Prior knowledge:
alpha/beta; Quinone Oxidoreductase, Chain A, domain 1; Rossmann fold; 2 domains; five-stranded antiparallel β-sheet; four-stranded parallel β-sheet
Amino acid sequence: MKAIIFSKERYGDPGPESLPNLAHLRLADVPVPDFSNERWVLIKSKIAGICGSDIGFLQGKPMPAGAPYFAFPVIPGHELLGEIAALGKKVRGLHVGQRVSIDPTLACRERGFTVPCPHCRHGNPGICERVTEGILSPAIVIGTCRETGGGWGEYFVAPGHRCFPLPDAIGDDEASLMEPFCVCLRAVLNYPPRKKELVVVIGAGTIGLMNIAALKAVEPSCRIACVAKYPFQAEMASALGAEYLVDSQHDEVMERVGELARSIGSLGEEPYWQVVCASCMTR
């Protein structure tokens, strides 16, 4: 199969007009992943997103939470949409040809442990304690694991229980955004806004905009101030429900946010507020 391989090895001079470190990528013919596990599935990649962490790797700025836990070379791509190509004999509820969205997490269950670590036991597999152990190479997600491959290849493998069938009403483009949106939705559900609360979203890239959508879905009455860098980002933030827009290139951000909080208080409402940092999902 064809796949984009990411390695620390450089494959020639990228030239002055290329992206930083683009020479660490190459298109190559590689074997289809053959992780023989009767509870896993082989998936044909349809769309794979380019995450901020992927861009960081290409620019030589690895994600601190993930970089120590995998070894090059890898096939990137963890924002996944695909079509099932083959099933392990113990996989149930799925069929060949089915479109699926994939949770790329590789935690205790995926690594073959029957007794989960404390984080997995409490529903937090994203911070599993065993990301270097078990039946898989060290990695936190599909797309950083040697055995699984990733969405930047024609095929990859995934656990059957991490595959979620998609209805026909959801198109491929929308479905390709499910993984990053779920990250935002989880953050909002962990710290849901109160009624009419002012929530400040710092950043209006893809994750910032998805945070706005998630906030409005969970608590439609919350008021959102979005700190945006570019006019087109501000327009999209407004379309998704942001009532207040802060221009990070011209406004004094925290002063402007303080003014918004005080204005809410002047209306006789409690000026409580919280902040979402879209770049790191910290709240």
